[in-house]
Amino acid sequence: MTRKKLINWFCLSGVLSLIFYHLHGVIGAMNYPGYNPLSQAMSDLTATDAPSYIIASAYTRIYSILSCLCCSMVCILIQKEKNQTLRVGVYLFTIMNFISAIGYSLFPLSSSGFDHSFQSIMHAYVVTSLVVLFSIISLVCISIGSFKGPNKIRSLGVLALLSLIFMFTGAIGSAIVPKEYFGLVERFSTYSAVIFTAILGLYGFCVFEEKE
Q1: I want to staple 170 with a disulfide (CB 3.0 to 4.6 A). Which of 53, 90, 175, 189 is the partner?
Q2: ∠ CA(84), CA(67), CA(174), 5° rounding?
């Protein structure tokens, strides 16, 4: 078994980021009287007028730092990878995480739901559109690149493809399901990228090795 370097251990921050993201949903809901996870979006918990804003935002900030750290470490590990498609995919996925971390921090919803304010428009249309765009392109690249690579990373391509399917399921489903189930379907999209970050971190720990 190859001895793990510090950079490989840092990749496990992706798993921690998933834990903190989930905690923001669980503990945030506990501090938001009347919150309904079936009908309300995750972002309602960090709306500036939400009773859960302070506690939920604290967890999302930790999540953001950990997810960006994880992806940055994976970028370093594969910077000399000959598989250019895979490398570009990981780079784009990392950029997506930074856009998400910075964008949603600067422009949280100003009110639960959507109040058409400048802040909410930036959150829902500008930042979210960029996050979705980079997510789709990066997952496609990672999937294609992984299938071109050795057997030990082909499973990453399957998982990237599954994440993409769940992302589309959430995006399409949230537009067609009754409002009573919007929050449930919306979580398919939000969790797909969060879970894939944790998966990428596990590959960074178990599979990818820094090349001299």
Answers
A1: 189
A2: 90
